[in-house]
Design goal:
The chain is of the alpha+beta class and about 325 residues long. The chain folds into 2 domains: about 190 residues, 3-Layer(aba) Sandwich (Rossmann fold); about 90 residues, Methionyl-tRNA Fmet Formyltransferase, Chain A, domain 2. The chain contains 8 helices and 17 strands. It has a 7-stranded mixed sheet. A 4-stranded antiparallel sheet has the order 10-11-16-17. The protein is elongated.
């Protein structure tokens, strides 16, 4: 299209803020849509998601519908905003077909994987857990499926070996901001490419058990899982049934022993054997206490070489 499109932006977490700001710098944002406020913290204070708080601070038109399906009032609000196109970035809800049809150019989605790989709610986390060395951002035309629409733009991003989910999210947010601006500038001239659905892989929402250490896995797999769950639910191990949060995991060359067996305790941390190789743990946080250097915790807890962490494996199908 020859004129700059007017944009409705759908997003909720802090990840989406750089994308919103990149769009605002070059296009008119006529409506911001975020998830409803939610209780947060011990006091359960009703708190807006970061995108909603940011939009309110900028005095941008803001909507926080509790549901999208069969919501004629919200569809009317979107239509009346005059948006030519809508952009979603980590919004967190599936969009009904009736809503997708409202803007003239439909909805564009910024997805943090190279679709059709890692469709779903947690592509950043699962790419790390699975040991990927490359991921990327896809700008797609949204349809009613879960990340199944045709691809408009796509760009790869190498994953640094030390990155956790937080660092990877920062890099992908920057990449997504740049690509969505390019897509909006070329709106109506991009050629949609259908996805190969037979090649699709999935990235479901994380649950607490995804953070439990599988000591029988290889050291590399244990560290990859630690990187993927670093933001939430974090890495949890068990010793005598007690839960412990582990931090600063890294592969330790040359370690050998039974899975979960403590091989060494020194200033560098706690070295624990895995199914193949070993990992060093930098910090340990017992329940209801602060994180502390692993060696200090081990000394106080009577943990020494030969101590074995509990083995945990996911339940079978």
């Amino acid at each position: 299209m020859s004129l700059r499109p007017r944009v409705a932006f759908f997003g909720s977490p802090a990840f989406a803020l750089p994308v919103l700001e990149a769009i605002r710098a070059q296009f008119e944002v006529v409506l911001v849509v975020a998830q409803p406020d939610k209780p947060v913290g011990r006091g359960l204070k009703l708190t807006p998601p970061p995108v909603a708080a940011h939009a309110a601070g900028l005095e941008l038109p803001l909507a926080q519908p509790r549901k999208l399906r069969n919501n004629a009032a919200f569809e009317t609000q979107l239509r009346d905003s005059g948006a030519d196109v809508a952009v979603t970035c980590a919004y967190g809800k599936l969009l009904p077909g009736s809503l997708l049809a409202v803007p003239r150019f439909g909805f564009l989605n910024t997805h943090t994987s190279l679709l059709p790989a890692y469709r779903g709610a947690a592509p950043i986390q699962w790419a790390l857990i699975r040991g990927e060395t490359v991921t990327g951002t896809t700008i797609m035309q949204t349809d009613e499926g879960m990340d199944t629409g045709p691809v408009l733009l796509q760009e790869a991003l190498p994953i640094a070996p030390h990155w956790t989910s937080a660092e990877l999210a920062d890099a992908l947010s920057t990449q997504a901001a740049r690509l969505i601006v390019q897509a909006l500038a070329e709106l109506g001239r991009l050629s949609p490419v259908p996805q190969d659905h037979a090649q699709a892989t999935h990235a479901p929402m994380l649950v607490k058990e995804d953070g439990f250490v599988r000591w029988a896995d290889s050291a590399g797999a244990v560290v990859n899982r630690f990187r993927g769950v670093a933001a939430w639910p974090q890495t949890t191990a068990f010793l005598g049934g007690a839960r412990l949060k582990l931090g600063g995991l890294r592969v330790q060359e040359g370690g050998q022993g039974q899975p979960g067996e403590v091989l060494r305790v020194d200033e560098g941390g706690l070295t624990v054997a895995c199914g193949e190789g070993a990992v060093t743990v930098a910090t340990v946080q017992p329940e209801a206490r602060k994180a502390q250097p692993a060696a200090l915790w081990a000394q106080a807890a009577g943990v020494r070489p030969g101590t074995r962490f509990d083995l945990w494996q996911p339940a079978g199908p």
